[in-house]
Amino acid sequence: MNAHLRRAAVAAAATTMLIPLAACGTEEEPGVRLSDDIVVGLLLPENQAARYEQFDKPVIEERIARLTNSKGKVLYANAKHDADLQTQQLESMIEDGVDVLIVDAVDSKAIAGAIEKADEADIPVVAFDRLAEGPIDGYVSFDNEQVGHIQGRALLEALKSGAGASTSGKIVMMNGALTDPNAAMFKKGAHTELDGKVEIGLEYDTKDWKPENAQANMEAAIASLGKDAIAGVYSANDGMAGGIIRALKSAGVTDLPPVTGQDAELAAVQRIVAGDQYMTVYKQYAPEAAAAAEMAILLARHMSLGAAAHTDIDTPTEESVPTVRIPVIALTQDNIKETVVQDGLYTVDQICVPEMREGCEEIGLTP
Fold this sequence. Notes:
The protein is an alpha/beta fold. 43% of the residues lie in helices and 17% in strands. The longest helix is centred in the middle third of the chain and has 18 residues, at 144-161.
C-alpha cells in the first residue's frame, strides 16, 4: 500500500490519540492495532551536534515507552554523516520487520529509494527534522525558514546596536550542508533579512555541517577579506559557530564580531555568556521529538494523524503530508534563564562552571 493510500486508510480508521485506546482494554477494532508490541526504527543523521543523542533519542524512546505501556521497542542507528550508511541502516530495519520508521535524513534525496522500499513493505515513515523525499507519511520539524529570519534579524540588531561591529563592514555567511534541505530554508530566511541591508563579502555551504570545515572556510574568508573588514558572521548552527570563533581568535581578533548560531548547545550558551557568540536559536527538542514518536505510534496502529498534525506540506515527491511545526526562539544573554534554564535543558550550575562564573554574574545568571 503506497503512502497516499495508507494515509487515506488511516484517516478512515480513527482520529483519536492512542493512549486512551490502549488503556481501556477494549477488543481490537477492524483496521486498528491496539497491541503494544510495536517496533520503531529510529535513524538519526549524525552525532557531532549534541542534540541528536543527548536530547532527541532519549525523548523519543521515553515517549514510545509511554505510548506503548513500556512494551514498545526502539531500534536505533546513527549514520554519522554517511548517506550510504543510512540507506543500509534503513534497509536493514525493513528486513528486521519494524512496524514504523522515524528518519532524520543525512541526504534528503539519497534516502528516497530506501523510503520507497519501506513503502513497498507497508512500513510507514515519519520524516523527522529534515524533509526526506520519497513516500513519507508524516513530517515533524521546526519552522526552518523562520529560523533563518530570526538569525538574520538578530545579526542586524547586533550590528545596529554596536555589539562588536557596524553595518558598514562585510558579512560572512556560513550556511549548512547542501545535502540538508533545512539548510536551504535557513539560508533563504537569512537572505530575506540581510540582502540589501548589509554587504555579504563571502558565502559558504559547509560540507556535512562540520565545525572543522566551517573553521577552514572562515580562515579562507579572513585571508580574503581581512580580519578587520568582517562586521559579523551568519553561522547556521552552533557547531559551526564554534569553528568560526576559533578561526577568528587564531587570526588575532580580540573584539569578536557578532556570530549567530542554532541549537542552543551547552557550549554555545556558554560562549554567549562569555560574549564570544552573540546568539543562538533555541529549538525545543522535546516537543519535536515527542511529536515524531506520537506520529509513529499512530501510524503503527493504522490510525489517523489528524489529532497530531497541525497542517500539511507538499514535498518534491509527495502531496499533503501531515505536518507538525514547532516554533523557535532567539536566545541571547538576555533570556538564558527564561528559555533553556526554565525548560530544564540545562541548570545554571551546568552553564556557570567555575571559569564562566564571572560572566554569569555580569548578566545576572545566578541560581
